[in-house]
Amino acid sequence: MDRKYVIGVDIGGQTSKLGVVDTRGNVLAQSVIRSDTHDDVNLYVKDLAAAIRKLTDQVEGMAAIRGVGMGVPNGNYYRGTIEFAPNLKWKGVVPLAQLVSDELGLPVALTNDANAAAVGEMTYGVARGMKDFIMITLGTGVGSGIVIGGNVVYGHDGFAGELGHTVQVRNNGRLCGCGRNGCLEAYASAVGVARTAREILETTDRGTILREIPWEKISSKDVAEAAQQGDSVAIDIFNFTGNMLGAALADFVAFSSPEAIILFGGLTKAGDLIKTPVVESLNNNLLDLWKGKIKVEFSQLKESDAAILGASALAWEL
Amino acid sequence: MDRKYVIGVDIGGQTSKLGVVDTRGNVLAQSVIRSDTHDDVNLYVKDLAAAIRKLTDQVEGMAAIRGVGMGVPNGNYYRGTIEFAPNLKWKGVVPLAQLVSDELGLPVALTNDANAAAVGEMTYGVARGMKDFIMITLGTGVGSGIVIGGNVVYGHDGFAGELGHTVQVRNNGRLCGCGRNGCLEAYASAVGVARTAREILETTDRGTILREIPWEKISSKDVAEAAQQGDSVAIDIFNFTGNMLGAALADFVAFSSPEAIILFGGLTKAGDLIKTPVVESLNNNLLDLWKGKIKVEFSQLKESDAAILGASALAWEL
Question: What span, in angstroms and rounded, lies between the C-alpha atoms of B254 and B263?
Fold first, then answer.
């Protein structure tokens, strides 16, 4: 039988999403299993394999599946491992690709979720036909997937593309989850936007509808909603975030001169509130030769399917 | 006849160096022509072709030449052009590779000098066998050649690898030759080291033998010599330079996770004066996963031959 579908698996701290995907990026069937209830990874793999088999009953069975692609935290593409992932139960180095492959009798590839998103965008999304682009994921953290000459950059050890941990504020920068200070992620993530909001509320007496929300509960979504209502503090927060992100992107362009930068993840729901200052700051900070020439695009993958699509795209390359 | 040699041409603002090179990186014959006396690039190309023909008389003639590699300011590898080079007489976009190829009847490739240095290091130098490394050239400016998966990164337009123009000081940064402020090049170049020296002399009254040199004539070489004699101001200047360069390199590692960073050019003559603070700062600034794991090496190409070797290495790939 023609192996015309792939499986995409996106492993998060609480749940794993899985789906069957065709070459056009249609998710034909999907389901979810827990990823936080198995202390032993082998038991998780058995659950995952069972869920995959069950899912394929909705298409043409396992015989129609070409391979499995997985997006996982701290995933190492070269070794097919999860390595020291702080938010997963399985500690140390876990040879997940091999375990899943042995269980299913199919080839398996894995990488981190931002790299998977980049492959997904190249396979099904706005980056189709592009050879050189950078995907920036603006979620709880800031991740990146870098494509050069049509290939994801994995680096000598499989861990390249940590652009969320480039240092943007060298003096008195915010503490980042990585233990260092001033990382892009501490500012340009959803968490970073909320931190910026709290800093402004705490250090100024500017009037804003954000003060109606309990201080510790302010989210980037609240800031976006306030900005959409014309709240000037909320608009300033997005301008601040976009300015910093745009300046960072200008340095990334100096590295690999991509055709486009593709923004993905929760913060992009703010639309032009974030895109306009990013594009302006990018062009203000670029070398003359690139001014006005680097595209900035939002991902075109359907939000609910994006994680599965990104992961699945890896499997077409197997 | 076996085409067993290549020609390397390094074009600078004043002179062009050219040489015949064998597969092991021996420069068998070399010469120099002016690059600043021809307003018409076609006349320059005729001079260059004549010099190349003459040079090959010293080996086995033009029939033994496989191709020509050229390192040129603002060189575009994809198009074989020089584009808007501020320090050359030929303005606009010059299709140099085609002109030289037509004149000699040989394949010609060109790129900028830092990319050429990276290819040279990979072909003949300390990066032999490496697939992922970053070459940083510390000369009058700061250039870079990035190799990922064994290929130089040219980007979507041929201009990737401008790491000297990543912004390291976002507030009150030094004016850079590119017209922006705070670029790495304004600090970590030979010119940058001299600027740091002048700043310290001007803003402090610290005692240093550098005060014996006319203020406007202080060079990075003077600073290195003073440091080698134990002058504490001069040593501080190298520590400052190395700290900033190391922090910048940590961000570059977050991008492409190279096996090694290779330092090349005039400033490397300072040896451990520059290398020690660079390595320390790099490791202080890296994410934990890379601490102590990224090699920092000096180029092993013979200084006098390096420009020709770098350029020539391009020709083996033709």
Answer: 18
| Spatial CA neighbour of B310 closest among B301, B64, B318 | B301
| Contact between chains at B179 and A288 (C-beta distance less than 8 A) | yes
Contacts of B165 in chain A (CB under 8 A): 254, 287
Does A168 reach chain B within 8 Å, measured CB to CB?
A: yes
Which pTM value belongs to this model?
Answer: 0.94
Mean pLDDT of chain B: 95
Provide the domain limits for residue A78: 5-121+304-316
For tokens 């995959």, what's the residue? A52
In terms of domains, do B145 and B98 share one?
A: no
The answer to whether the CB atoms of B157 and A257 lie below 8 A apart is: yes
CATH number at residue B178: 3.30.420.40
CA distance linking residue B86 with residue B74, whole number of Å: 9
Regarding whether B262 and B308 lie in a shared domain, the answer is no
Model confidence at A1, pLDDT cuts 50, 70, 90, reads low
Count of domains forming chain A = 2
The C-alpha R_g of chain A, in whole angstroms, comes to 20
A13, pLDDT greater than 90: no
ipTM of the complex: 0.93
Instruction: Report helix, strand and coil shares of chain A as percent, to nearest 5.
Output: 45, 20, 35
B167–A250 CB contact, under 8 Å: yes
**Residue B141 and residue B90 in one domain:** no
Rounded to whole angstroms, the Cα distance separating A46 from B238 reads 57
- What is the Cα–Cα distance from B271 to B263, expressed in whole angstroms? 10
Is B155's CB within 8 Å of A162's CB? Answer: no
Residues A250 and A109 in one domain: no
pLDDT tier at B1, thresholds 50, 70, 90 = low
Q: What SS3 class is residue B291? A: coil
Taking each helix axis as running N to C, give the angle between helix A190-203 and helix A220-228, from 0 to 180 degrees, rounded to the nearest 10.
Answer: 70
